[in-house]
Amino acid sequence: MADIIQENNYMVNDLATKGKQELSPGQIVSCQQIDNDFLFTCDNGVQLCLQVITDKILRFRYATEVGFAPDFSYAVPADLPRAALDFLEFREKTDHYRITTDRLICTIAKENLTTRVLDRSGTVLSADEKGFHWEHDDDTGNDIVKMSKHVQSGVHYYGLGDKPDNMNLRGKRFTNWGTDTYGYVKGSDPLYKNIPFYLELHQKIAHGIFFDNTFKASFDFAAERADVTSFWAQGGEMNYYFLYGPTLTEVTQEYTRLTCPPEMPPMWALGYHQCKWSYYPESTFKAIGAGFRERQIPCDALYLDIDYMDGYRCFTWSPTHFPDPKIMVRELAADGFKTIVIIDPGIKIDPEYSVYTEGLANDYFCRRADGPLMRGSVWPGLCNFPDFTRPDVREWWAGLFKGLIQEDGVRGVWNDMNEPAVFEKGTFPDDVRFNYDGNPASHKKAHNIYGMQMARATAAGVKQFTYPNRPFTITRSTYAGGQRYSSAWTGDNIASWDHLWLANIQCQRLSISGFSFVGSDVGGFVETPDGELYARWIALAAFHPFFRTHSSGDHGDQEPWSFGEEVTDLARKFISLRYQLLPYVYTTFWQYVQQGTPMLRPLAFLDQTDTDTYLRMAEFSLGDHLLVCPITTAGADGRWMYLPKGQWYYWWTDEERTGGAEVWASANLDRIPLFVKAGAVIPLYPILQYVGEKVVEEVTLHVYYKNGTEYSVLYDDGGEGYGYQEGHATTRRFTVIGTDTSLTLRQEIEGDYQPSFTTYRVVFHGLPFAPLKATTDSKSSALAETTTETDAVLPEVIVHAGFAEVVIK
């Protein structure tokens, strides 16, 4: 009898072991082509649906023996158009199938479904190692889906969102599981955002992988095995997109267009913002605004954290701290300030609270597996949480903003704690259920998109009640495609030099991961910076798309005037510079919207043919023509930095430098290392205390000499409203042509929008000759001298804004 029991135990253990072993596709037994889609079926029931999205984008979607689930994605819109292909060829070979487009070749092995992707010259870009494999998880019933690929020779990896680590990801492993990580440090993982997209560069050719799976996902960039990179998820499908460059910038553009860029923000959203946990009561909040105007420090937005609410109940005002918010918001608006308020997902359980009773009556809150409502503690105490994956809940949530936005005059909303975060266990239990837009799911699947869907619902409400103005929203947590709904910040950082370094890396990484409208809490959220750290941080943040000081009230004051007169002057200087650069920053945002171009670009993106750029991470460009490199150590009076190939001008001195080498950039506290690309046209506004403070009648064009040709662009649509979507915008394209004895500036104007300015002040930098005369559209122009913002004395001409050609000799 004992022998029989022992034998049965062996059988049971053997079955359990087999149940946990990795499984792989079998041999292909059939292939079916429907238009640009190809379905390969294996003898063990595994299937691969390979979709040719464009000649540069291939989608790989695998199913185990259970077949394909409904094709649904929060990242890629279902109605995204698929362009007709000029060329698509499908052939069967002895041991593989081959699909060819204008740009790519993809082979699929008959033996085991492994794939390779090559460019048309035959260079292998991506090659499966094991390829797709999986393991069944008895605890959840999900498949743990896995993909492993060979590490190509000399490969480098970038992207993956807000990971606080070196720019180049090779040798690292990361997990996507949105987490409230207060006071994170370098290497902390996971963080708030879940963007499963990375870029790969080898042999100076770039491509990207977007793993569209919302379960907890992991990425190993040759960390465990030096010759294998892999990614896997704790459920769902192995569903990824291959995106070809061949440049890094093009890869990000392809990904951003696939997941869709945002609409244009109001221009004021690109100004300076001031925030604290928390400004209250009303007198304190108004005094902050007065402090900016009295000191002539530009500022467009002031923020209210959770203490503006009545007992932390969302969509309410504290009757004690803010007895008449309409009047307060109106008075601040008259002085140019836009009021931004925080809204968290937790709705206080309170039968006297209308938002709670409405949500309860309509069954809008998340439930546990056996039916009870999901309860968790956040700032209001015990809360229920809306299921933002339901369309009707998103519509209800959007409607709740009518009071704050339309009636009270609030201009923007920031969403916090939406990983989602709860105090007891960090986040929701796994058994919480979600509608998932008609595809019922547990928290294991919905967790990583919860913050994105909250931001989506918030954006819809702010947009509805802000109209005809443009909305502004900000989120802490998001998923791929979340850039459609919101801006973002990098979370609860620390007032330290290490975190200034991290802010630089994280904002670059998010930008190349499709999410450009991003910034950090200037000066650090946790603890208090000294004046030097704050000055260096605000100098860097002036070149980030989202520009906001935010701090915890537990750690002291952090307004620009909190560190003494010297730092106040420095903060005023860099914030004022940001306002002068607004037309350049706004144009860079327009390029992001139109083309998916990252606003912040690491050095490798500027010249991937130069291998010296691959491991650099401090230097970055904002837009096409400004190169920035922050000072991230105390007591420094400058730093060594790498200039990409070409000619560059140091912003502060006009000194010309030759790239392709390290240079020393002298930078006391009143400077940040900042270079301008030769041939660039940099437009500057006059200093404004806020966007719209006064009519801009003249724009200064700073033209930097180049012996050769360079192109620049200036976009204008008024910075507010939706007329630009009907074509009410103007794009001005500049061409600079330099010779040994002349410089020609040409302008081509597209669009009929009439901006407020009627003249340009054209200032010429770096001329290798002494100019004697200038002409505008073949007519003589008065040549004068001007002293620039950096105290340089340079030639200038005043011309009408509609000119076609200016020549200086």
Summarize the structure.
This is Alpha-glucosidase. About 20% of the residues lie in helices and about 30% in strands. It has 13 helices and 50 strands.
Feature tags:
13 helices, 809 residues, alpha+beta
Can you offer a commentary on this structure?
It comes from Hymenobacter qilianensis. This is Alpha-glucosidase. With 809 residues, the chain is an alpha+beta fold. The protein is 20% helix and 31% strand. The strands form 9 sheets. A 9-stranded antiparallel β-sheet has the order 5-6-7-8-9-10-16-15-12, with no helix packed on it. Strands 29-28-27-24-20-19-18-31-30 form a 9-stranded parallel β-sheet. Strand 30, helix 10 (531-541) and strand 31 (547-549) form a beta-alpha-beta unit. Helix 10 packs parallel to helix 11. It is globular, with a radius of gyration of 28 Å.
**What's the pLDDT, averaged over the residues?**
96
Q: Considering DSSP H and I runs of 4 or more, what fraction of the residues is helical?
A: 10-25%
Biggest pleated-sheet summary: 9 strands, antiparallel
Q: What share of the residues does DSSP label as strand, in percent? A: 25-35%
Organism: Hymenobacter qilianensis
Protein name: Alpha-glucosidase
